[in-house]
Automatic annotation (TrEMBL):
This is Pantoate--beta-alanine ligase. The keyword Cell membrane does not apply. Its EC number is 6.3.2.1. It comes from the Eukaryota. Pathway: Cofactor biosynthesis; (R)-pantothenate biosynthesis; (R)-pantothenate from (R)-pantoate and beta-alanine: step 1/1. Belongs to the pantothenate synthetase family.
Amino acid sequence: MFRQGRQLSIAASLFRYPAVAPSSLRHYSFEVFRDVSPLRKLRRDLLLSRRTVGLVPTMGALHEGHLSLIRQAAAENTDVFVSIFVNPTQFGVNEDLSSYPRTWDADVAKLEQVNAELTRENGGRITAILAPTSKTMYPTLPPSSEIDGDGSFVTITPLSRKLEGASRPVFFRGVATVCMKLFNIVGADRVYFGQKDVQQTVVIKRMVTDFHMDTEVKIGPTMREDDGLAMSSRNVYLGTRRRAIGLTLFKALKAAESAYHSGKLNRTDILDPSTSITKDVLAKQQALSPSERALFEVDYISLANPDTLEELEAVDPAKGAILSGALKMAPLEETNAGEDCGLGDGKVPVRLIDNLILKPL
Ligand code: AMP
């Protein structure tokens, strides 16, 4: 439920989180915070009662990937804080901030469902949701997505320039900045991130180390659909045709993983099988008519050092590697009557990322 006095101070015009209607202002099994100081008071009370807090930062549009992190946090802490904030500074000026799915009511229902499953005897429960406004998170200057925009930013280089950062130059600056803010606000004992966004895990671990932040970074496994597609809030935009072709990324990574497990250590030996899969699938799609095909572009397939994300010419079997990739699904050129084209009618380009960890042999 909302803390005393909070409801009155929540002016609808201040909300950047659009689906929070007055009907949502009801009693939950957790408290919902819009502001920092009441949440800090709760955090202090928990500390004094020797309880532990695990923070799961999210941008909402919750799915099993998020929920698995929350369950892990509940198993390892007495109290779980979930943040829901679509962070503007990690979206580039031409990226999909406005079309990012915002599903407050469904998110809260899922969190209630998780809390109903969790009992205090077995571990923790969700205690707090932090759903701040942009003004709360960026209290002085408006959040800028410009590369040379003004603001108080955290930059973690060179990690942030690699892989995802190469085509999304402000992305990790935004991620590191918002996570620094969230970590400072919550003061969590542990923070939880998904393996799905592997570069994010490396950047956040580096930030925690370099800034001597007093929290433990925990990584949960990637949750996948039955066919292997990594769950993502953006998958709702794919539709049936693009979803089937989007699975190519996972298949390509699996082929490279098999090469590694069959004893290959050289870059070309590991990555060639994945390149032939993506090339083959793309050629077959290009041969189809615009109403049948789903085109894509491979942004990168990377074989990198797990700590530095430097590209590897050969995997050191004692260290292993991160195998990761990004694929840009183009909008559908032509759609058919009755076709499931996903949210946005197949017009929204969808960037898919995935990775597999090549463990030391
Ligand atoms: P997001 O809301 O996309 O910013 O994600 C919030 C957290 O959930 C991040 O730590 C993500 O890595 C994690 N996450 C997203 N998708 C998955 C997934 N399929 N499996 C596990 N964790 C995920």
